């Protein structure tokens, strides 16, 4: 299917409000559209929590922010801008409704088989994707829009964030010759989380390697910080604890790292997009669809009969898919990446 643009001034809205990893996965679609259509107006609709990643992005003409409890204001701003094309990449009822209310002549989204919550009802162009990975699925939209596919994860770095992280590193004992490995212990789903004691054991083993330093990454919540401190204590306080970071500061922090280890979570996908070798620990979601989109990766996924379940909590209460991942095999994956890229 090919849907021509009516003019060179056709305006496009990418509607992908959340979450961090999903937004990162949609960046190659943005790059494809901008490089193929340099003169067209391209905007992105995103929740305020994640908007920092897209602020002042050189490929965007506008970032439309969906504030907390601001659904109708967000929908109204989109409608007032009279977009010609809205691409609903979220595939949920609420984003489908926003797409419909936009009154855009072309309201794109996934097919009935791939959409959730009957979002497809609000669309007039539905794409049946064939690719297994979500990045490639998004790029199929680019193909249907007659854009040339571009695999590029352009993530600008803020000078203020770079300075904040530089000041943090000045207070550590990391030398220029050290390799820094990031342990990403938090996830949005309980079911995606690897045990804290295994992160601690892994950290202890890594800290014994010459010229390697280990840092536990956490977000902005105090509960995440407490968990990071718990892991460090279990590892005999041999691990560094990252500073509190915003999304842009996390970008600067990860750019100073050499490798990252974590579950299917936004910071792991951000690390992969920034070019770091990564070890992905997978359980309730399939790496064939949600894995880090990079050649610099090792994936550990044992796929018990119940996986992928796509559930935030384990119905069996044993979290078998993640608990089956052993420290020794994660260490082996790290060593494999070290042999290939260092």
Description:
With 342 residues, this protein is of the alpha/beta class. The protein folds into two domains: 12-144, Glycogen Phosphorylase B (Rossmann fold, 3-Layer(aba) Sandwich); 167-341, Rossmann fold, CATH 3.40.50. The protein is built from twelve helices and twelve strands. The chain has helices at residues 20-36, 71-80, 93-101, 134-144, 159-170, 196-207, 222-234, 247-255, 266-273, 287-290, 320-323, 327-341, and strands spanning 12-15, 42-47, 62-66, 85-88, 106-110, 125-127, 179-184, 212-217, 240-241, 259-263, 278-282, 297-301. The strands form two sheets. The protein has a six-stranded parallel sheet with strand order 3-2-1-4-5-6, with helices on both faces. A six-stranded parallel sheet has the order 9-8-7-10-11-12, sandwiched between helices. The chain is globular and about 60 Å long.
Q: Any idea what the CATH superfamily of the largest domain is called?
A: Glycogen Phosphorylase B
Strand order of the largest sheet: 3-2-1-4-5-6
Structural class: alpha/beta
Helix content: 25-40%
> In terms of per-residue confidence, which ranges show pLDDT below 50 for 5 or more consecutive residues?
none
What oligomeric assembly is this protein in?
Answer: single chain
Fold-level CATH name of the largest domain: Rossmann fold
Query: What is the 3D form?
Result: globular
The main sheet comes to: 6 strands, parallel
CATH class of the largest domain: Alpha Beta
Q: What integer is the average pLDDT?
A: 94
SSE pattern, N- to C-terminal: EHEEHEHEEHHEHEHEHEHEHEHH
In whole angstroms, how far apart are the ends? Answer: 44 Å
Computed CA radius of gyration, to the nearest angstrom? 21 Å
Tally of domains: 2
